[in-house]
Each structure stands twice: as C-alpha cells, then as structure tokens.
Model the fold of this input.
Amino acid sequence: MDSVDDVTDATAAALSPVPEPQPAPPATVLTPVTPVPTASDIEVYRGLFQSMTGYDGTAAADGQVPLQVIKNLQKKVAQFHLSYKFAIDELTTKIEILQEEFEHTHDYSPIEHVRTRLKTMDSIIEKVQRTGIRPDVDTVRARIRDIAGVRITCAFVADAYWVAEMLTRQSDIEVIEVKDYIARPKPNGYQSLHLIVTVPVFLSDHTELVPVEIQLRTIAMDFWASLEHKIYYKYDRDVPAGLVAELTEAADAARALDAKMARLRDQVRQLD
Ligand code: 0O2
Done:
C-alpha cells in the first residue's frame, strides 16, 4: 500500500504547473542482437547455399548474389523440407488409424498424445556444426536423420513398446536404428524409446525413403523431458550441478511413478 508521504508527493506533483517540454535525451546506441557469424558459421551457410542452388559465389565479380539465386534458394529450402513433411504426414496417418481402431474396437487406447516437428534450417545448421559433418545438402540428408520427428506419448511403459511394435511391423516401415533409453536411461535420467525408421514417400516421378525419428515415452517421462529441455536451453547447456542432481532425482521419481501405475493397472485388470 502507498505510504502517506507517497500520496502527498503524488498530490503535490499533480497540482504543480505542467512542466516545460525538455529536449529528448540522446538516443541510446543499441548493440545488435543478432550474433556476428563465426568463420565456421559462414562455411556451413556457404556450403549449404552452394549445394542447394548450385551457385558458386566466387564467380560473381562484384560479390553480389543475383536476386534469382536467392529466390531459387527459398524454393530449394521449401523443397528440401517437403519430403520430410510428407513422411510425417504418412506416419501421422498410420498413428491416427491405430488410435481410431482402438477407439472403436477396444475400451482403451495406448496412445495418449502425438506431436510432430520439422527441424528448422537453423537447428540443422547447428547440428552440422556440432557433429562436424560436411556442409552440403546430400550429406545433411544422409547423416541427419531426425529432421522429421514424431513424438508419441503413452500412459504406460508397456504401451510405448507395444505402439513401437505395431508401427514397425508394418511392411512399408523399415527400422534403421533403435536407441532404448527406457531400458538404459541417459546419465541425466532421460528416458524414451527412440526409433529411426524410413517411410516411403510416393512422389509424382519417384519414391523417396525418408528417415523419421520416432520418440515413444510415457506421460511422466515426457513431463520430465520437457522441463529438462527448457532448463538445458535456459542455462545454454551448462546447467548448475545442484539443478542437475535435482533433475536426476526427479527422473527417478518419474520412473517410480511409471512402475507404480503399471502395478495399479495390473491390479485393476485382475478385477475384470
Ligand atoms: P529437439 O529440439 O527435441 O529436436 P543428437 O541429436 O545429436 O543430440 P543423437 O544421438 O542423434 O543426438 O540423438 P538421440 O540421443 O537419439 O537424441 C535426439 C533427441 O532426443 C533430441 O533431439 C531430444 O529431442 C531427445 N533427447 C535426447 N537426449 C535428451 C535429454 O537428455 N533430455 C531431453 N529433454 N531430450 C533429449 P534434439 O535435436 O537435441 O532436440
């Protein structure tokens, strides 16, 4: 609450004559928010730019990139993402079919939520730098296999494996890699079942086998992972030790909750 003095000051100010307009203070010089790219940033951008457009910047006498090349780049980036988007669409349809089938024929669905994401160009470039792969579009396609991502959240651990099995036994899905962070959690406590699969995308004149990363996890694992992800980026990947220890403890609690829920479900089933 305001003190009596504050009220008095405010009243005096309100009653005093309108002050003469003062000259504006000198403009503050703002520092640019966009970081200046490092040499390696420029190499990655240049490599991807050249491999996407076929344009060799060194050929330009004045160092200017023709407008047509820039327009072409926009188109190439959109095309680059398109097959990944189609692969996500195909997988999403498969998952929706399973969900709908379960709704109609069973009284329970193992799938709680589905989320999809396409890696942005910035995030692809960050991964090219982090992994040190060659910055050209063919290498990126071959080596970065999580450009298309689908995350499936299930109520129970057994459901995550069950859904993985239902998807991977479909004849057009090929499993390229399995990382089972549920059976072997990461040191920080992260748990999820990761699959890299390929999905055939039937285009007008050819078929592409597009890699997609599928992450399957329980609600408890998802809750933990989304908080940890936020903290990780908030601290720019350098999370204080105390917080890391607390997160690991929280991961143990999430694991214990999953185990308890599974036991409860078994008990309820025995009553049927
Ligand atoms: P985003 O924004 O979710 O896409 P790498 O992709 O290089 O980190 P790798 O071996 O290719 O590693 O893949 P891995 O280990 O299968 O993990 C890839 C994805 O799993 C990450 O993608 C995260 O989504 C998730 N993940 C892995 N480890 C952790 C973790 O410790 N905490 C959380 N919260 N998520 C994790 P991105 O591209 O890093 O992020």
